[in-house]
Specification:
Blueprint lengths: L10 E6 L3 H12 L5 E7 L3 E3 L4 H6 L8 E3 H7 L2 E5 L2 E5 L4 E4 L4 E3 L2 E4 L11 H4 L1 E2 L3 H16 L5 E5 L3 H13 L6 E6 L10 H10 L3 E4 L3 E5 L2 E4 L4 E3 L2 E4 L7 H5 L10 E3 L11 E3 L4 E3 L8 H19 L14 E6 L1 E8 L2 E5 H17 L8
Parallel strand pairs: 1-2, 1-9, 2-5, 9-19, 10-17, 11-12, 11-17, 12-13, 18-20
Antiparallel strand pairs: 3-4, 6-7, 7-8, 14-15, 15-16, 21-22, 22-23
Helix pairs in contact: 1-3, 1-9
Bound molecules: flavin-adenine dinucleotide.
Length: 375
């Protein structure tokens, strides 16, 4: 086990995870280096995927490289050491992060942006394709598409009636145009609960022949399909697991203050409730008293505030507050170049909404790309 504590007076800022907020942090430190600070980025992958474009990859509108950012290049520009490994725990007393490979990394200021996990379901690891992490999901989709084209998959069940589940289902349907596959969507809550566009989307799912089973809890997946609450079975040759966000278990095990679901409890400055030198943003964090749905929109909004507060923490200055908007715009793609816009109780739809989303998404990725095709 190596200990990378340095015997010098510079402050060590350790960024864990290449999530949406940390992209803004890396860009900021690349644009304006912080004097007297040494940066490191810990990530299990060289690339960060922009999830908003992932359904478009599945549908065939984009290549995987169109929606990814080269973290190595972004880190190099920010003067940060890039460490290809993942965090397995934090020891706040020693100010160390332990990695999956057993390294111990010292920090003076720590920032967590590791996203959420897809959560557990009996049999899901073996028999369902999980939408997170993105890279294995896209590889699994390639295999599923080939099996469906060979006629081995005739029925596909998607579990999760939030925006990710709906988008991924409609994207798969578009990606399998001409293949005789049926789709079913299982959702414990009403599909797109809380979205102004839920009625429009219910109509679109119906028009496209998707069987929607809301109010049904899926309790297990196996090689023949799904088992529902109450023992009912649903036969399917493929299952895709796209339910809500779950907290990574190492967070609570590290002794950090968490919310009831195990996410890092942070103040409106994005500082941990238990350790002010630890910051967290994106899905892995919950701003206590200002909790919002776990979505990329909020992770993106937190990025510039996080960058500012990390600089202030390194300089020993008081951090500023993050003020989340009360609602956010959701642009939900429908597989083909068509999308539904949902903002509070209001909604709109059309091919122009898809083009609008496409422009926003491409612009986001372009902002963080330094080389051709995302490196
Ligand atoms: C298919 C799909 C479509 C979606 N579409 C939208 C959308 O259109 N709009 C929207 O607002 N939201 C969308 N979401 C939700 C959105 O993806 C998340 O809310 C968002 O990605 C959260 O961003 P983040 O910064 O928290 O972390 P993420 O973007 O999830 O990134 C976390 C990073 O941390 C790394 N990491 C993970 N664990 C560790 C570890 N232990 N150590 C080090 N690094 C680690 C990962 O490799 C990853 O690069 C979608 C989700 C999915 C699955």
């Amino acid at each position: 086990m190596t200990n990378t504590r340095f015997q010098d007076s510079v402050k060590h800022l350790l960024l864990v995870g290449g999530g949406h907020s940390h992209l803004a942090v890396l860009k900021s430190f690349g644009d304006t280096p912080a004097a007297g600070a040494r940066l490191a980025l810990l990530s299990p992958s060289r690339h960060a995927f922009y999830s908003g474009m992932v359904p478009g990859v599945v549908a065939g509108h984009y290549r995987p490289e169109d929606c990814r950012v080269d973290l190595g290049a972004l880190a190099a520009r920010a003067g940060a050491r890039f460490l290809l490994d993942s965090a397995a725990g934090v020891d706040p007393a020693r100010r160390e992060v332990t990695t999956a490979r057993g390294e111990r990394l010292h920090y003076d200021v720590l920032s967590l942006d590791t996203g959420s996990s897809a959560g557990g379901l009996a049999g899901a690891a073996e028999h369902a394709l999980r939408v997170r992490p993105v890279e294995p999901f896209l590889a699994g989709w390639e295999r599923l598409r080939e099996s469906a084209r060979r006629g081995e998959v005739r029925r596909i069940a998607v579990i999760g009636g939030g925006a990710a589940g709906v988008e991924v289902l409609l994207a798969m349907r578009h990606g399998l145009a001409g293949v005789a596959a049926q789709f079913a969507l299982f959702s414990e809550l009403p599909v797109l609960a809380g979205h102004g566009g839920r009625r429009r989307m219910a109509r679109i799912l119906g028009e496209r022949g998707v069987a929607v089973r809301s109010g049904r809890k899926v309790v297990a997946a196996d090689e023949n399909g799904l088992e529902l609450d109450g023992g009912e079975r649903f036969e399917a040759q493929a299952a895709v697991w796209a339910t809500g966000a779950y907290a990574p278990s190492w967070v609570a095990q590290s002794g950090l203050a968490t919310d009831a679901r195990g996410f890092v409890a942070v103040r409106d400055t994005l500082q941990s409730h238990s350790c002010p030198e630890i910051f967290a943003a994106g899905d892995v964090a919950t701003v206590v008293g200002e909790a919002r749905p776990k979505s990329g929109v909020f992770a993106v909004r937190q990025g510039p505030v996080l960058a500012r507060n990390l600089r202030r923490a390194l300089a020993g200055e008081v951090p500023v507050r993050f003020r989340p908007p009360s609602r956010s715009l959701a642009l939900i793609s429908c597989g083909d170049p068509y999308a539904v816009a949902s903002w509070g109780r209001f909604s709109l739809e059309g091919a122009w909404v898809w083009r609008w989303k496409d422009r926003i998404d491409r612009r986001f990725v372009e902002r963080y790309r330094l080389g051709p095709a995302g490196g």
